Amino acid sequence: MDLQDKQYVKGLMDLPHFKDVGQSDVFYFKKGQEVLNQWLNLSVSGEEQEHLLMLSRNYALFQQEAEPDGLVQRVAGLFYRVISYCDSRARDKDNFNEYPDKRTLARAGVYMGDWLSHFLLFKFAPDKLKQGSPVNAFNYLLEPENNITVLSESHRKQIAENVLELEYHPASFVGDLLAYFSDFDLQVSNPNNLSYLVSIILYHKKDEWFDQVVALVANDEPAYLEQMSQISKDHNGIILWNSKKPSDAVASVRDLRAMIQDTGFFHLYYSTEGAVNYRAKIIDFALDQKQLQEKNWHQRDNLFGFEAEMSAYQKGNLSASIVFLAEEIEKIKPLPKEAFTTYNNRKWPLHDNLTPLKSAPEDADTEGGSVGNDGQSDQQPLNQILYGPPGTGKTFGTIERALRILGDETKGKSRADIKELFKIRMEEGRIVFTTFHQSMGYEDFIEGIKPISPKEAGKTLNFKVVDGIFKSLCMRSSIFKVGEKIGKHEVIGVTAELLTLKKPGGNYLPLAFSILNSLLAYLDKKKIRLEDFKGKIDSEDTEKGNFPELESYLINGYPNIIPALLLKMRDYKWDQLKEEKTVLIIDEINRGNVSQIFGELITLIEEDKRLGADEELTVTLPYSKTRFGVPPHLHIIGTMNTADRSVEALDTALRRRFVFEEVPADPSLITKIRMDLGKGIAIEGIDLALLLTTINSRIERILHRDNVIGHSFFLKCTTLDELRTVFYKNIIPLLQEYFFGDYGKIGLVLGAGFVQPSLTDKQIGFADFEYPDAEYLKERKVLHIVHYDRQSAIPIVLNNSTVEGSFALAIQVLMKGAAL
What we know:
Shape: globular
Oligomer: single chain
Distance between the termini: 36 Å
Number of helices: 32
């Protein structure tokens, strides 16, 4: 890390978690240390020790005996408590971890059976332990000054090589790392917390040093995988194999063996029909006959599919090049390939390829619930809200998320390129952007009766049911796909409002979804079967103007295609959906009356209530009288400005159905992003990250953290003039809004350089009029904002002296916290 990185680290120290660690007077994981010492000091007889070591090989049996057996029950209690401080994915962590913030050493993802065996061996037979995440965790709790919470051996090796630029030596790694960071002037109140602070700094910059295989993905037949998943439920392990070794075989084998050493397993994912539907937990593997013989897998009780000879693993003309010992294989809810990152940008596997993965979803829902694995995830919830103060980049964050949901890569792209791609997806109708406001209603969002202007003067004004923003998006791509055939017509375009067909002769036919929906409702009402529909509508309805646009289509010779379209709309099977995701972005979602806008559809947006789900729900819409449901692939992303309303004040129905993610003001991002853009971290000596931290710490003390100022205001500034513009166009108006014109409080935030008493208020007296408080009002200070945006030098009062002030001087006064 060079000097620029030191500035970046300096910015990190202002973040709440980093600050909390640095300022803690006690060891940050003292509770975990105390419980581990209780375990090491627990008196156990030789016979009890042998029994516990026997249980260390069978986690399920250990769980069973923890109920009736007094000793095993006490050991289990200590075990679960210790692990609750070590691993954020530990079983029942939240029940056993006594810290309010549920802090843990790492997101280790170690299998609970491996935690158990290491926990017992650490006390009874430490010489039998192999170095890995569990041992590193226990050593850290006992001696934090000489250890670190980088638990993974493979992670330590990468840090040694890519950060320290040294060969990895376990014995000297922590010392080398602390020596490297000695230049960074890291301040901690308790020396035992220094190595943890170093660790969280490293993981904050993980993308700069992390480059390893964490999992594999293969392709296989759904029927075979379903059969294997059922078999694995009744066996203590199952054999799987592949005809090809993983791509990047040397790196893959090395990293996957390290994963097994660290956590006890890695995941092998299976892709079927374009999505990942199955996942195996691999605890060992063999690449040839010699390795297979050395494994002694045959000694494992109730193992399915084992063959002693490598050549025995065959299917048709394929034979095994790698054999896996899987503890289980399970079906998971489908994950798109975009949720994974392949190692070295390898292609997604086809046929019998075995592709290494650099990252996989952090969590995947199985048929039995949520389970964890290693890796990073970009999997997005169906309904989510980004909330935070103004200027934190929430709106742009929704743009990036929407594109990633659709499978578009945004990493490495410029802001301009991302916006251009977003514009394209909006034109395609796959993303719809709207903003809620006080006047937004159900009729705008779902459907409503709208007036239709007559085509000729003097004709009667007509009204018809018009689809709103949300309903239109639900209809778009839910039913029709570009390229498919409807009769002899080809679908060449689908937007939120319009379906465009191409006739065999080359002519185009645009059809509005609102017309098709209206016609479908009309036929249902009249009890007209689609088979009997010949493109004719009662003259009475035509004269009323119910279907003027549709009438023109029918007259122009398209009656034969209409029944086919309506039939597809009516008989559409959601469980046969070939997923094409769409995204609705709702900016400022808290400014509208959500209950009124969503109406009955607030329930239908829940994942398990969507079309095709086990608890699918549909409703009859009040205006069109048609049945309606929400498609399973529509994502809703909202933004919420907490300066307008806090999360706690939101409608409870909304809060239950959305995942909320805070987007806080982050001074460190100013440093990072500006460095990436080559703009430098300071303007004429003004440290922008420190400037934001100073302003926000004062606002938070006077008001609330919901009312701080976002970092995005400072990202584009390159000159003092641009910074001055930000102050007078963004920051000062926000403060005036926050404090309702109380310039005294604004002065507490910005200082005497920006808020001054009027120099003329005592020169102009009151009118000749008797008033009880006149004397008090004469002495009252009248404060105003000093406008450096109107002139560069202004007389200002500092320390009871009038000096020639400037914007730069006012910033210095602000940063120092007192007048010069």
